[in-house]
Amino acid sequence: MKRYPMFIGGKWVDARSGEYFDDINPYTGEVYAHVAKGDERDADSAMAAAYEARKAWASTPPAQRAAVLSRAAAILEAERREFAEVLTSEGGGTSNKVLFEISQTMDLLHTAAADCKAILGSTYQTDPEKLSITVRSPKGTVVAISPWNFPLILSMYKVAYALGTGNTVVLKPSSETPVIGLKIGELFQKAGLTPGALNVVTGPGRQLGDALIADERCSLVTLTGSTETGRHVAKKAAERMKETVLELGGKNPLIILSDADLDLAVSTAAFGTFLHQGQICMSVGRIIIEAKAAQAFAEKLAKKAARLAKGDPALPQTVVGPLINDEQVRKVDQLVRDAVDKGAELLHGGRFEGRVYDPTVLLGVNPGMRIYHEEAFGPVASIIPVQDEIEALRVANDNEYGLSAAVLTRDIHKALHLAEGLEAGMVHVNDSTIHAEACCPFGGLKGSGHGREGGRFSIEAYTDLKWLTIQKGVKQYPF
């Protein structure tokens, strides 16, 4: 059984306690690896290393920082099979999901490498005798807390741009997928990153996370995780006047108007609902469809769900693999049972074997059911019939979340009306709710968090803005 120490100060070190914890394969239930179990002492060591390295890394020319990111992308491409094996074995990712995540991560690294050489300021027309500009500088040391569902790319959104803008980083990956976080440390070590510029600590999330947030050397906290965790992090950070970037949960609506192509709607809904077993913050959480098309759509979606291969994520034909743990299986099943008990029609699924939950289709979901409001994070299509686009918009916004949304229709006027009215940070017309590009703003509204990642939006998040003036001549004061 392989043992994974932590990555601190450019070295691989055991936890101060000497303890390791089990990293479990979610499909087999077997131990995949033993990983160092860090505590507050390890958090302190990682912050000390990052703080010590901050000036040297910040003074590294942007072209050299970009070269490190580009080399990391090349190494990732060369080692993509090894990374894919980890993403499947500890995260339960199917081959389609894993290959998509790795390719998107390589694109992200290349994009960040280009962006960090173009950190822009502004000039202002003020007093003619004064040059007035803005410049950006690194915040210092960034604490990055990443999730288990897309652990490679969602960690890299933080790490690549924080490093690219001259910050040092302490990465705390999820305890469900710690090895991929440590592989990121190894990736940058091979790419020639300055020792201490990136540190990876593993262990209990709340214990390590609170210690990192409380550390006075931390300048900013960036988290992708649940809304509950986001509220906790925001409170802890606010107590210390620290900035946060929070990308949290979602109950994302897919609105289907009756003029939409039905087969396209079924494919879009299936992809958005069942990719990675619905364990994506952008997954379709509610399918809101005009009532006159609802029955035909639901029956087609149920038939498609029945054809999807499920089971071992290591098999190339598998579409629906395991949920991450037994607790998540219980949660999904409770939500489905509650909906059925309260009148929803179960057209397919509602069963599980081990941690593999059948792709499930529910018709007639309403506000009296838990699944109408709660993020399932499982392969469950919740279909909500409505009378028209006006009711569709009301239902779509009837939720605490506001991450992603999508609209399917041939009527561009209705599409624009809905897009403008949807309370979401991202809206996609005639596409799925699952869509992200490295150069574009990624983030949500309401309970889905605040701040944006990607492209210049990450640059703004990870840098401080300074107004700078230079007096051209001798200024005359009134006294």
Strand-pairing-aware structural class: alpha/beta
Assigned CATH class of the largest domain:
Alpha Beta
> What percent of residues are in strands?
15-25%
The rounded distance between the terminal residues' Cα atoms is 77 Å
CATH architecture of the largest domain: 3-Layer(aba) Sandwich
Helix count from the secondary structure assignment: 15
**Number of structurally distinct domains:** 2
Overall mean pLDDT: 97
CATH superfamily of the largest domain: Aldehyde Dehydrogenase, Chain A, domain 1
Dominant shape: globular
What topology, given as strand order, has the largest sheet? 15-18-19-14-13-21-22
- Could you please say which CATH topology of the largest domain applies here? Aldehyde Dehydrogenase, Chain A, domain 1
Strand segment count:
25
User: In percent, how helical is the residue content?
Assistant: 40-55%
Keywords:
479 residues, 2 domains, alpha/beta, Aldehyde Dehydrogenase, Chain A, domain 1, Aldehyde Dehydrogenase, Chain A, domain 2, six-stranded mixed sheet
